[in-house]
């Protein structure tokens, strides 16, 4: 890994999760994210995606931070976030958001299976940020892409009909 949070040939390898109170500013989100990344020896170009709770997608400070970073903003329901085991759950967040974690859970979900929490949640007066690393994979991998801000990348539908037949040539395993 380089000091910029990129692996050779992979590009950005970090997912940032953000929780916030109403009215959080873009500047506060970005400052908190930069501080978290610096604590881990990284910089914001390493961030491939910003993730948050579905109910926070309309917060101008969060959407503005994603736009400023040039990354998609993905959202998760409270049920999706609550299903993630996190190291620092909060009863306060559970009462306010319906999940014991927004920042850590969103970062881990956005990093995908095998992702790991790199920076646990840190807080400012109106925001909370956590950073997760995408799982290591051999060879180049593009960062996740979303269709645009405030949306989750939909899964491709499975085409209807029977699966294509597989054939084997005689003598081959």
Q: Beta fraction of the residues?
A: 15-25%
Helix/strand order, N-terminal first:
EEEHEHEHHHEE
Tell me how many strands there are: 7
Which geometry do the CA atoms define?
A: globular
In whole angstroms, the N-to-C terminal distance is: 40 Å
Give the count of helical stretches. Answer: 5
The biggest beta sheet is recorded as: 5 strands, mixed
**What is the residue-averaged pLDDT?**
79
**Could you tell me the radius of gyration in angstroms?**
18 Å
Look at the helices and sheets and give the structural class: alpha/beta
Share in helix? 25-40%
Strand order, main sheet: write it out. 5-4-3-7-6
Low-confidence stretches are 1-9, 138-173
Overview of this protein structure:
The protein is α/β, with parallel strands linked by helices and 173 residues long. It is 26% helix and 21% strand. Strands 5-4-3-7-6 form a 5-stranded mixed sheet. Strands 1-2 form a two-stranded antiparallel ribbon. The longest helix has 14 residues, at 26-39. It is globular, with a radius of gyration of 18 Å.
């Amino acid at each position: 890994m380089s000091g910029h949070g990129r692996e050779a040939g992979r590009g950005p390898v970090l997912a940032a999760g953000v929780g916030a109170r109403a009215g959080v500013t873009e500047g506060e989100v970005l400052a908190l994210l930069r501080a978290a990344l610096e604590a881990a020896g990284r910089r914001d170009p390493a961030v491939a995606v910003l993730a948050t709770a579905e109910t926070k997608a309309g917060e101008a400070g969060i959407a503005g931070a994603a736009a400023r970073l040039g990354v998609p903003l993905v959202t998760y329901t409270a049920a999706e976030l609550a299903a993630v085991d996190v190291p620092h759950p909060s009863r306060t967040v559970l009462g306010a958001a319906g999940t014991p974690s927004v920042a850590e859970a969103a970062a881990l979900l956005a990093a995908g299976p095998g992702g790991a929490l790199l920076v646990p949640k840190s807080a400012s007066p109106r925001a909370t940020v956590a950073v997760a690393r995408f799982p290591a994979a051999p060879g180049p991998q593009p960062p996740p892409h979303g269709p645009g801000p405030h949306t989750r990348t939909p899964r491709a539908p499975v085409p209807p009909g029977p699966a294509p037949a597989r054939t084997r040539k005689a003598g081959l395993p």
